[in-house]
TrEMBL record:
Its cofactor is Zn(2+). Keywords: Aminopeptidase, Hydrolase, Metal-binding, Metalloprotease, Protease, Zinc. GO terms for biological process: proteolysis. Residues 547-865 form the Peptidase M1 alanyl aminopeptidase C-terminal domain. It is an enzyme of class 3 (hydrolase). Its EC number is 3.4.11.2. Residues 226-439 form the Peptidase M1 membrane alanine aminopeptidase domain. Belongs to the peptidase M1 family. The keyword Nucleotide-binding does not apply. SUPFAM superfamilies: Leukotriene A4 hydrolase N-terminal domain, Metalloproteases ('zincins'), catalytic domain. Residues 92-187 form the Aminopeptidase N-like N-terminal domain. This is Aminopeptidase N. It holds the Pfam family Peptidase_M1_N.
Amino acid sequence: PPLIRLEEYRPSDYLIDRVDLDIRLDPHAARIDATLALRPNPAGVAGAPLNLDGDDLRLVSAALDGAPLSPDAYTVSPAGLSLLTPPRQPFSLRLVTEIDPTANTKLMGLYRSNGVYCTQCEADGFRRITYFLDRPDVMAVYTTRIEADRTEAPVLLGNGNRIEAGPVGADRHFAVWHDPHPKPAYLFALVGGRLGKVETQFTTAEGRAVTCAVYVEPGKESRADYALDAVIRSMQWDETAFGRAYDLDVFNVVAVSDFNMGAMENKGLNIFNDKYVLASPETATDGDYAAIEAIIAHEYFHNWSGNRVTCRDWFQLCLKEGLTVFRDQEFSSDMRSRPVHRIAEVRSLRARQFPEDAGPLRHPVRPRAYAEINNFYTATVYDKGAEIVRMLRTLIGAPAFRAGMDRYFADNDGRAATVEDFLAAFTAVTGRDLTDFARWYERPGTPRLSVTGRYDPQAARYTLRLAQSLPGEGGQDGAPLVIPVALGLVGSAGPLEAATSAQVREGVFVLDRSEAEIVFGGVTEEPVPSVLRDFSAPVRLDLALTDAQRMRLLAQDSDPFNRWQAAQDVALRLILKPDAGRMEAFAEALGRFLDGEALADPAFAALVLALPSEGEAADALPADVDPDAIHQARVALRADLGRSLRPRLERIDAALAPVPGAPYSPDAASAGRRALRNAALDLIAAGDPAAGAAWAAERLAGATNMTDRLAALATLALIPGETREAALADFAARYADEPLVLDKWFAIQAQIPEAGTLERITRLQDHPAFTLTNPNRVRALIGSFAFGNPTQFARPDGAGFACVARTVAALDPTNPQVAARLLTAFGSWRRLEKSRSAKAAEMLNGIKAIRGLSRDTADILARTLE
Ligand code: B3K
Ligand code: ZN
């Protein structure tokens, strides 16, 4: 597919100031009557043809300044409508188009989900509603009249504020919505359907009264309370943390069940995958509650970082996404435990972004070229993008960071901005040149940071040598990155506060050359260096420490992240290179840790007990990955630890047992207690499957919330036998009418690391609740298998790859976005040992042979095979 390149960006030749839409909803023939107020862009080419984007539209009529367009004045193609010689002064274009929302299986543009009309326009779905300059630097003020059948769509929602509503004849009605804030087309939205709601009032710091509502399927209103509460907390938090207040009289969130991703930040009308809205103790886990809180916040925060200040072009995607992820991570850290949240962020970065950065789909945080922009909503743009913002704050300090953010919002409000505009705001408030730092946006790959230490007892001096490496590629130089390295020294009784270095400020050394030495004075005993505290930069750290040194960090370091990391490092080495003696010493150290503080911070302890994943172990190997070997080593380590720690784990289990009759609360402290107790059970079961199965079955029977029930089921799922099958059947019967809960059931089974799983998946594809048309179902069953079952996906016989390849092929014609995303599961295929990688290549080439592949899938495929 042809590439669109950043260096070829040029301003639009025309601008659109106002858009008036009159939309008549109809299941098969929705009619869009659009009047666009256009004018030549002084920054564009005078007299150029006007090329409006269009996709899958039927043009009914076209008029220029009130007069029908003559047929020789314009051309229509599958890609859009061109006006050959547009006026040189402002003009209006009225275009009537017709579309079929029911036939829209791509879930881009206007479509129907369970009978509810909804839209998804980012990145380029608006062109599936009407002909338009569908690019983010064209910003207009929208007025939208929506008309629909009264019974089919009693609720009609649009962007902005509702300014009018009323009946149309006996059966139909209308509503007019006006959004005073100029916005790009990707933020347009409308909803029409039968929906229930919960709502509340919020008064902003500026004194604006805002009605906030969450709309859901009728009957599920009580499951929307938590999301509504998260909206209010997000509004409050953005005012205090960033000085950003809401700017409309209403803020609406709508949950729909067919959605290609998590949610969408349309101005004043966020549309959500219902998975990230609906929650009750009976149907949602602690993890679901946390995800709802984070995504509600994320979409709300986009109101400033994305909507008020939007992106000039899609190459700048990280400008809104990386920044908004950073903002939602800060929010969640404030709502919950900051260190625990930081560990969760890094785990997810390592699980998704590191492999992406190490494989054929790697790209800079700001890509320079794309064939299909929807394939660039990646962990790199989002999560590494957030890490860059975090590093910037570490470099300049929190007060300057806040001043720079204020400056960025002030200077770019109402504009479509670039990464350069973002950095310029921080340069403006600090006087600091950020040119070198900006390389983080340009350089793909995860840098390696190698650190060695040397102690000189005579001089009471400790020297750390740091070196960074990240080979340049594609004609880039390998110039060093600016890496903030938070570090300190830890003695036998805790951090060595007296050891100091002039090169380390507020615990941070800035490595801006290839290598550097830091000298600490006043070091009275041989220390253990604690490097990359709080994961201060997205790098891979090479620091050779002994297990004993790492265990000192676990016991003594002041930085919770590195305490956790130390245990992870020991465990990872034990997975890659099993050793009975070292395992025993590790178990003892973990035992001491658990005795000392597990009950004081259960959420943290649960993370210490969660060993590195199989994926992380694979990622640590240079090549020739054998997922079975990793799996077996990890199972063996968990079994050993489960047996060694058994008495402690049982004590934890008893100490954290819920008070009978106590109501469920999703707060972080309660969730942490559940997490640790369930981790303890899981480890006990790893060491003693027979006892574990019985115990888990009992826990399942007595569970009073979905968190405990699902945790017990997940433990049980790893232990083959009657008990497991009975529990799975029971769970399915109990939640037969709850698609989102059945997704959990699909996912647990798809991840069973056994040869029989493939057959189970084939059976489950015929389950009445499964359908290829719903992205959540596909992700739950096939996605969980492809991304969460390394041994079975990469079966040596290729059958796992084949199953996913078949799904990609089956889905591509109807929903290319979801198909392409699923295909990214093959991203690490070249790192597998030869027989497996050969099978993967075979499957990929099989997909390649299919005629008429979508651009989405063809793009991922081409890059994966490159
Ligand atoms: N901005 C949307 C993602 C749109 C994805 C388009 N393929 C949700 C978000 O990141 O907040
Ligand atoms: Zn976002």
